[in-house]
Amino acid sequence: MENYEERLLERGIKPTAVRLLIFKAMLYYPQAFSLADLEDELDTVDKSTLFRTITLFHDKLLIHSIDDGSGSVKYSVCSSDCTCSIRDLHAHFYCTHCKKTFCLESISIPSVPIPENFLLQSINFVLKGLCDRCAKFAT
Questions:
Q1: Gap between the terminal Cα atoms of the chain
Q2: For the chain (length 139 residues), average pLDDT per consecutive 10?
Q3: Which of 4, 13, 50, 59 has the fewest CB atoms found within 10 Å of its own CB?
Q4: What are φ and ψ of residue 23, in 5° steps?
């Protein structure tokens, strides 16, 4: 069993009861999740607490954010050795039918040459289509 408190402490986060509850809920998701997903899952935790906790976890590199083009930012828990640097980034897949976003950790983002004197700060690599579950029902 994973030591949740240790994971928070490794990232410099004080493991309060609410933070542990939220972190455990985040780990429950097999795909990326949104603030709304957490609100539905944790209906006893108010929205501002969830938002502040997501912001803290993101700032401390415990989770990463994904702009999948759906209009709702998604999040996913980082691996223990992730520093959210450009080399740690991976592709994501957005299912246009069920609206779920999946981390494709085995697919690294390809190196893209940029013009001289440009400074790369982030990359968003999202593939869109039907996930394996939805593709079964496609005609």
A1: 42
A2: 85 95 93 92 94 95 88 88 71 91 85 88 87 86
A3: 59
A4: -60, -45
